[in-house]
Amino acid sequence: MLSVAIVGGLHADARRAAVDRLLAEVPGSVALHHDLATAVQGTVVRTVRDRTGIVSAGEAPLVNDCACCALREDLVPELERLAEDGLTRLAVVELWDSVEPKAMAEVVASADLRLTAVITAVDPALVLPYLGNGDDLADAGLAAAATDQRTVADTFARQLEYAPVLALATSEDADDEDRALLAQLHPTARQVPIGDGDLSGRGDRDWESWFERRPAEGQGPAGQAGLASADSEPGRHPLAEAAFGGFDVEAAAAAQHPACALLPAEADECGVATLVWHRRRPFHPERLYAALEDLCCAAARSRGRFWLADRPDTLLHWDAAGGALCVENAGPWLASLPDAAWELVPPVRRAAAALDWHPEHGDCCQHLVFTSPGLDRDGLELLLESCLLTDAEYAAGRTAWKQLPPAFDSLLEV
């Protein structure tokens, strides 16, 4: 039966090295790649290759002037063709640079194909530069559609945090700070060195020594690939093993949802720190808005959910990278819903709310996580605390809170 493994990432050299490693290690494997750079000519170029070179090539027309839409339309028929011929054991879907794995994983899963892995390839030395790159994808020549308004930083962050397996390229420029940053950004990921050109899987001695100094990781919850599977074979390269580890699309989506996201824990290692800030009092909208620039620049990456006093029933999503913040309405807090509506809420959301439940406010809370080299924990905490309602403002109650100036209307496009 055909297995499908998705390999993505903005670090193109690392991504190609990971795909080449899989083609070399897994007999009967092929790689599908859609080059979206040709979209300006009105088509997307598809290639299928094995370890010896290109097997076939073709073109797919744009759909609604969108290269990513063309990829979605063309990918499934190609995978179904490979499944039907019975000759291919593993189809490696090598995503184009800025294509995010979540969308493609859901496309593959919805077609009843056997998705066994989602892998993001990473050059550890480039993690901090990419997280700090606030350029638009369009300016970098990486936009997937004319309407694409994403930045390099936020795209890279989502690619990194969605995949349960990170394929790590050999990098002489990477140091322990880079590795600590990567480990704290996605602590539940299984990290697998790609290797250094040889086929023994022993090409990155630096990473292997790092793993020996750290506790075992990669056995986290939802969506994570296991360390072994029915397809495991003695002596197989660990990246090839991970390609058959299994992947749960629904669990992976839940792990990214603002209401129940698997956020990093407190950490401090090799000059990199993660601050987890959790409070039960809502933010004053004007004071928080005035502090946004300082908060966004305080860390390489920050995310989580937060609570505004003038919108006490609304769960808001905080997503910052590259010095820019995206704020989204993620729906109601469960505490604001009638009891009958709880049956319509997914169990994982109810479980997450139960863990955060407060006798007075239910699941309404601040849960923000900041990760960065050189993080000023004390200064950041003081700034966040200053944005909360004062004792007098808090005591005034919800009716008074709702009368506070709606400073976030522009960000939420109200």
Topology of helices and strands:
Elements: E1 3-8, H1 12-25, E2 29-35, E3 43-50, E4 53-61, H2 67-85, E5 90-94, H3 101-110, E6 115-122, H4 127-131, H5 152-162, E7 165-169, H6 176-185, E8 190-195, H7 205-213, H8 238-242, H9 249-256, E9 267-269, E10 272-279, H10 285-297, E11 301-306, E12 314-321, E13 324-332, H11 347-355, E14 366-373, H12 377-386, H13 391-395, H14 398-401
Parallel strand pairs: 1-5, 1-6, 2-5, 6-7, 7-8
Antiparallel strand pairs: 2-3, 3-4, 9-10, 10-14, 11-12, 11-14, 12-13
Helix pairs in contact: 10-12
**How would you state the average pLDDT, rounded?**
88
| Class derived from helix and strand content | alpha/beta
- Tell me the number of strands: 14
Query: What's the Cα radius of gyration?
Result: 22 Å
Overall geometry comes to: globular
Distance between the termini: 49 Å
Q: Can you tell me the residue ranges where pLDDT is under 50 for at least 5 consecutive residues?
A: 199-232
Helix content: 25-40%
The major sheet is characterized as: 8 strands, mixed
Q: For this entry, what is the oligomeric state of its chains?
A: single chain
